[in-house]
């Protein structure tokens, strides 16, 4: 995943990844909101990563990935709060596929 180092990261790379990792899910969730409102229990699922954790950042590398993923988590939290305040029955989940696996019944469990 290039670039690794902060000094090698350009604004263009950071903005490009922000558009893909953060803005893409933002636009998709807005686009599908009318359908989600019609369902009995809608779900917005964002794929996150441990690398998005500010608390778990112990090396500081790969900021062009970490920063947009952290922003995606913040977006998910804000959207969930707005949906709750609007009394919408829509859950917002941030799932890390590296730490979530289905059990024998197909139910997702976390290894955290």
From TrEMBL:
Domain of life the protein comes from: Eukaryota
Transmembrane segments: none
Protein name: Uncharacterized protein
SUPFAM superfamilies, per the entry: NAD(P)-binding Rossmann-fold domains
GO molecular function list: oxidoreductase activity, acting on the CH-OH group of donors, NAD or NADP as acceptor
Organism listed in the record: Lophiotrema nucula
């Amino acid at each position: 995943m290039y670039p690794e180092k902060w000094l090698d990261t350009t604004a263009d790379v950071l903005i490009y990844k922000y558009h893909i990792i953060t803005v893409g899910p933002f636009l998709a969730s807005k686009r599908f909101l009318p359908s989600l409102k019609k369902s009995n229990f809608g779900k917005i699922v964002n794929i996150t990563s441990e690398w998005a954790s500010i608390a778990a950042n112990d090396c500081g590398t790969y900021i062009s990935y970490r920063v947009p993923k952290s922003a995606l988590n913040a977006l998910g939290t804000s959207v969930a709060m707005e949906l709750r305040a609007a009394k919408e029955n829509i859950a917002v989940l941030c799932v890390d596929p590296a730490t979530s696996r289905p059990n024998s019944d197909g139910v997702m469990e976390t290894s955290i």
